[in-house]
Predict the structure.
Amino acid sequence: MVPTPVQRETLRSRAAVEEAAALEAAYGGLAPQQIVEAAVNQFWSGEIAAVSSFGADSAVLLHMIAQVDRTVPVIFLDTGKHFEETLDYRDQLIGDLGLEKLVVMHPLEARLRADDPDGQLHRRDADACCAIRKVEPMARAIEPYRAWFTGRKRYQAASRAMLPAFEAVGPRVRVNPLAAWTGREIADYLSTHGLRGNPLVAFGYRSIGCFPCTSPVQPTEDERSGRWAGQAKTECGIHLAGLENALGARPPANANEAERSAA
């Protein structure tokens, strides 16, 4: 009997869970640089991308990737609400590191017209705004790949305290090479390699997202306490379970995304 699409998706998801668990057991304790190298050259050659916010310490993971393979796609979700400093930093850092494939994903124009015509949805319903501007574009962005990198760390927030290096998300594997690193290790790496930082860090921004929902934090606070401050919300949704459910009908190729060579 030929499996239905739903059954095939279920089988792929189960396989991803097994794959992630096996990789975590065998390789989860390796140094971040080793995890990056193995993921790119051994586990998912040509089938892995990186998703970067170009935030406070994004340069660390991107530098590690550039040392292994500068052609790994780097996905940036352009929500239309980023700080100008972040957009400038993105382009500068890509140039610094010689990364060759920046993929910029945008929200679907039809969704914006229908659900956020005045651009103020973040004030009325932050979750709905993130769903349109980040989660759905993220689902489209990772669709072609079997795995993707994130720069998440356990120390960033209590909600990430048990973060593994390898985890399954639907039929794909999410790789968090820096999961076990401390803030000191991140700072040391940035300093050792002379990496450019997001200029907003100097103004107290330690976790940087869209400007309406990001505020500076005190040194004693969690890095992410400045995201959606005063709300129960702690994540935009791109790192939560069920991401693949946001992928609806695929728009025409390149209708709302831009891929450019950074060489």
